[in-house]
Amino acid sequence: MPAKIKRGDHVVVISGKDRGKRGAVRHVVTKDNRVVVEGVNIVKKHQRARSQGQQSSIIEREAPIHISNVMLIDPNTDQPTRVTFRVRENGTLVRIGKRSGEDIE
Fold it and tell me: Which residues lie below 8 Å from residue 12, measured CB to CB, with a gap of 6+?
């Protein structure tokens, strides 16, 4: 099954503590069905000093969220939409936004 959400897509979070936030997909973890979205699910990581001169610090970074908690934003209507697929005449698959019925990409 081809990917409904890919790196670089703009998505909106539909459930969880960051519901309503929008951002671009930075990374897709297909093995775990998770995505890393820009500015969403920020966690704090305590990092120990690695060398004598370096200081310990607390780093904020984005953690992955489940792919079912995000919805693709249709570039034609700027609204969240479900995704389906259509086969073109030349045999390639193309993603279709259910809301507008037009190609995504």
Answer: 20, 21, 22, 70, 71, 73, 80
Judge whether 38 and 26 are in contact, CB under 8 Å.
Answer: yes
In this structure, are residues 36 and 63 in contact, taking their beta carbons and an 8 Å threshold?
Answer: yes
Distance, in Å, from the CA atom of 67 to the CA atom of 21, rounded to the nearest integer, reads: 14
- Phi, psi angle pair for 67, to nearest 5°: -65, -25
Q: Model confidence over 11-60: pLDDT tens digits?
A: 999 999 999 999 999 999 999 999 999 999 999 999 999 898 899 999 99
Grouping H, G, I as helix, E, B as strand and the rest as coil, residue 67 is helix
Instruction: Summarize pLDDT for 60-74 with one digit per residue, the tens.
Output: 999 999 999 999 999
3-class SS of residue 69: helix
Q: Which long-range contacts (CB under 8 A, 24 or more apart) does 78-85 make?
A: 80/12, 80/14, 83/4, 83/5, 85/2
With 0-12 CB in 10 A as exposed, 13-18 as middle and 19+ as buried, what is 72?
buried
